[in-house]
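Reply to dn_fold:

You asked what the input looked like. This is it:
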Amino acid sequence: MFVITSHVPANQQEFMAHTKKMSEILSQEPGFIELLVGRSPDKPDTLLVVQKWDSIGNARRAINSGKNRMDVWPVMSSAKDEPTMFETLFEFKDGFGTDFESVLNQN
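and this is what came back:
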């Protein structure tokens, strides 16, 4: 699963410093896979932060953890108010496609 947040920080250099600190902290949490930051060439003031996790539960626990709050809040507080967590339904990697069962289909 992945978490995608869109940001328009007032100071991109400061935002990147906070994001790097957040990635160090979250990388110590169970289920963390990776964190990417990207900039739109069409709208360079907009940055995306993409986090990859092994499950929605691990992502939510890590991001909302009280012990991580001081390092996560400076980044996540500037995220646009829109859906951010997405489950992986299909992945094409290393020449192979894989379909994943939605957790929404599980009763």
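Residues 2-105 form a domain with the Alpha-Beta Plaits fold (CATH 3.30.70.100).
Hope that clears it up.
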